[in-house]
């Protein structure tokens, strides 16, 4: 520990930096012991070399020989190792650091991330920084210079002028380390601070324990499969929080609906079939369960994408996720819906990062890419669109199976092996080897169950309606499918309320009253009556309509 800070470990080094540190250690050990391994019991062929034989040379002679050897090395190779400027004094310092800190004593400080914590930040200064941070959300947004003055003012008024405050640069770095860059809007910061966060921590230990769902507009214009015109589509992803596998996705023209979300949930349970242009390298790769056995079980060749029954599904508070239809489908599939906390996008940070990864690794290179901002958009992204909706879906499926599932997870490495090389496929394979794989494929009738919508709950007025009356259009599951003609304008009946003494209806949890999307199923109502706002009817003797200014 150094001033309360934890030193960097070898796991903090990247692969090439770790290799350079080990090469430095081999040169140093050859100087100190005569052997690159550090012991004569693990001597390499030809060791010890004559100029490094510990029985014939002194330590000073070996250091001089190593300096001459490194100076004769190729300049680019020596620069890559950080040994282009070597001397006997440098070898002495390297030996002292290796004796104190081991391998990390030989690593360049620029190879590791900066250590957090600063000696100049005393308890008084830390209290002032936190007090100013608690005050800033209630003010209008201010610059870091103003925050520095407020910190000085708090320290002077609370602890006196004898307490020393660090320089502005140190305060700015500490503020960013503790609270982030501060780029959020003040209104959003206050709204997020007003929501109480839970104290429970979910430890994810197996695939399917938590699956995150989210939808975003696809930043690429695609062509409609029927008319060939450029359209905007939405991308819905299902990401497994344990292995970070993109277990299901769906492209929806214009905007998504609850049916699309239900089909994504269903796709999580089903194995992805192999496509004609996919090679053997994209087939089921997980050990323990042969691909032939999975193909026989599923009835077709299965691609290398995990499938399982999700235990918990995490979504945001969008209207497409918060409806009775999605709740009913989740119950049918045996899953639980767990909405994320309000104003807490970090609850689905992995899913948001997956969208950014797909955009930077794939979508930005496609024709028709329209960027994330109107100001950064190209001259004519609609004219550049060449991918049809079906081709875009096939491209995404191919990229997910072949690229995303085999990419190394750097910041999302598992806690039990933070320095290992892991991908979504290897994490799922490790979990399969530990816990096994549940080969459970849903029945075909679940496709219709995902589309079926439960009837709405019966209201009190409907329950007390006389039996000899003809059924009202609102009594059916879809009110506009009854076929009864409406008058010249759409009338909205007053809502009825359930009495307080009525027993709770179980259908309230699963039923949904929704209108069909097919225009042919709508009643024959004149177009103008649909666009007219409901309001009082004007008589013929009321005279001409006047504007607010008094003119006709």
TrEMBL record:
The Gene Ontology biological process terms listed for this entry are: DNA integration
Listed InterPro entries: Integrase_cat-core (IPR001584), RNaseH-like_sf (IPR012337), RNaseH_sf (IPR036397)
GO molecular-function annotation terms? nucleic acid binding
Pinpoint the Integrase catalytic domain residues.
Answer: 203-432
Bias (Basic and acidic residues) occurs at 465-478
Domain of life of the organism in this record? Answer: Bacteria
Q: Where do the record's region annotations for Disordered lie?
A: 448-552
Q: What is this protein called?
A: Integrase catalytic domain-containing protein
């Amino acid at each position: 520990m150094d001033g309360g800070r934890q030193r960097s470990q070898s796991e903090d080094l990247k692969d090439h930096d770790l290799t350079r540190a080990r090469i430095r250690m081999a040169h140093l050990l050859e100087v100190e012991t005569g052997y690159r391994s550090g012991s004569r019991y693990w001597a390499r062929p030809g060791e010890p070399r004559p100029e490094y034989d510990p029985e014939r040379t002194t330590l000073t002679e070996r250091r001089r020989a190593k300096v001459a050897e490194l100076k004769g090395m190729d300049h680019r190779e020596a620069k890559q190792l950080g040994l282009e400027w070597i001397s006997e004094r440098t070898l002495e310092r390297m030996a002292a650091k290796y004796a104190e800190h081991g391998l990390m004593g030989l690593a360049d400080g620029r190879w590791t991330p900066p250590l957090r914590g600063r000696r100049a930040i005393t308890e008084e200064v830390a209290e002032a920084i936190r007090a100013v941070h608690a005050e800033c959300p209630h003010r209008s947004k201010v610059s870091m210079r103003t925050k520095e003055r407020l910190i000085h003012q708090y320290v002077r008024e609370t602890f006196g002028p004898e307490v020393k405050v660090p320089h502005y640069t140190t305060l700015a770095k500490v503020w960013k380390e503790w609270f982030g860059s501060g780029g959020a809007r003040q209104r959003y910061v206050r709204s997020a601070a007003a929501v109480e966060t839970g104290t429970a921590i979910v430890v994810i230990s197996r695939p399917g324990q938590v699956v995150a769902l989210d939808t975003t507009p696809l930043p690429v214009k695609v062509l409609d499969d029927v008319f060939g015109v450029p359209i905007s589509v939405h991308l819905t992803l299902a990401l497994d929080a344990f292995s970070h596998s993109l277990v299901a996705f769906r492209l929806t023209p214009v905007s998504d609906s609850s049916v699309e979300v239900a089909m994504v949930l269903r796709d999580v349970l089903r194995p992805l079939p192999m496509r004609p242009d996919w090679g053997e390298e994209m087939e089921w790769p997980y050990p323990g369960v042969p691909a032939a056995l999975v193909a026989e079980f599923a009835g077709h060749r299965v691609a290398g994408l995990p499938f399982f029954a999700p235990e918990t599904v995490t979504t945001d508070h969008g209207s497409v996720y918060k409806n009775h239809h999605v709740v009913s489908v989740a119950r049918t599939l045996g899953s639980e819906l767990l909405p994320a906390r309000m104003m807490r996008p970090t609850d689905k940070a992995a899913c948001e990062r997956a969208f950014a990864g797909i955009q930077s690794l794939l979508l930005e290179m496609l024709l028709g890419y329209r960027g994330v901002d109107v100001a950064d958009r190209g001259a004519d992204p609609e004219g550049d669109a060449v991918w049809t909706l079906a081709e875009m879906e096939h491209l995404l499926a191919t990229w997910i199976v072949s690229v995303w599932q085999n990419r190394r997870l750097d910041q999302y490495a598992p806690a039990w092996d933070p320095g290992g090389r892991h991908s979504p496929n290897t994490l799922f394979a490790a979990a399969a080897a530990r816990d096994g794989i549940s080969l459970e494929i849903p029945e075909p009738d679940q496709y219709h169950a995902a589309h079926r919508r439960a009837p709405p709950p019966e209201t009190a007025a409907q329950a007390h309606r006389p039996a000899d009356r003809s059924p009202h259009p609102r009594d059916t599951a879809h009110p506009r499918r009854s076929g009864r003609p409406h008058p010249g304008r759409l009338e909205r009946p007053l809502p009825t309320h359930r009495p307080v003494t009525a027993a709770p209806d179980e259908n309230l949890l699963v039923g949904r009253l929704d209108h069909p999307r097919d225009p042919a199923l709508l009643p024959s109502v004149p177009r103008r009556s649909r666009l007219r706002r409901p309001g009082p009817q004007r008589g013929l003797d009321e005279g001409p309509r006047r504007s607010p200014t008094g003119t006709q």
